[in-house]
Amino acid sequence: MQSQARRALTATEFESIIKILRSSNKDTHKFFAPAFHIFQYNMIARLDDTAHLQLCNIKANHDHDFTLLAQMSWSKNVHEERDAPDQILFGAMDTRYCPILALAIHLEWWFATSTGSTPTNPFVFGLGGEDPEKGPDRTKTTVYSILKRFVFTNPSFQSILKQPIGTHSFRKFPATRARKKGASKDDVDARGRWKNKSRTSDVYMDISLPYNDARVASKLCTGGACKYALKDGAGVTREWVVNNVTPLICQRMDQAIAFTLGLALLWAVYNDEACKFVPTYLEEKIKKEYTLSASPELQAGYNPVEKVLLSIAGDEGELFIIPIQTDPSGAGTPGQACTTHTGNQNETIDAVMHHVASIYKEQSETRVEMEFFRKEV
Questions:
Q1: Could you tell me the end-to-end alpha-carbon distance of the chain, in angstroms, rounded to an integer?
Q2: 35-94: per-residue pLDDT in tens?
Q3: Which CATH superfamily is domain 11-346 in?
């Protein structure tokens, strides 16, 4: 008798889902649904917890301002007096997995809609309305309906295995993938906000482990974790980005969040592939403003934003995020990273980054000691 347990999605299936959604002519399918599932994937989250996510739970990361922080609830049946920790979100070289880009597109579009523009709607994915009880339930129903009626019945959906899939498949996929990429079970559990009831030590340990969390988050970034950065000579400023690329996000959220998301959206507008899943009115508006602001010689085919590949390192729990390569073309084509590191190369990079982190740590400690001696003298 075949098991009816819902299995994990495969990477091919997940990518097929995102492709189908982004090719839709319906705005909800094209902008809202991909962001929902990409965010859910990166946070190893339940559908219910993603539907309940509020705008105030997305935060700027002032230690690493090219990333964001998200605070979600503990997983189901976890009893913990302390709030769940803030968890990091990176950009991903592969746009099918990039939460920064997906949130940028979704939120700037969402805040222009009749439901999203309502100041009293507190939800990031508030399609079901502002009601704190019924809203998330309606959102979940809509998400599942889109999957069932539009995606799973689509002839181009590539189902690889015969076992059934469901909404839990979306959480099993990143959890399994992170483990296959070398993340420890404890770190994956922490990223998914699971806790072991039988371990007394969990009560005494700090729930915030930035390095461990960042390592799992980076492993979920297909093609590598990355940051979006303005190129030298791009001709625009931070203020220009938040005023002309993500003005609606800036009105509703922290300006630092609007800037981080704005860089991703500006990159997408000038990328030949990514611009296909940006709202047309947004693309035209941003390009018009950039044409008026930038030097004429930069405008033809020039992308003012680059994607920079990142490596994650740590020493004694301290997190270091180190740029290791720039994408010179600004391409970041879906399904491709600017460079692929595999096997022993990844291990070598990890070893080098650990050494670099140790050097950073020693330099920091040396500065503290020097400052102490200055005061003594």
A1: 80
A2: 999 999 999 999 999 999 999 999 999 999 999 999 998 766 655 566 788 999 999 999
A3: Intergrase catalytic core (1.10.443.10)
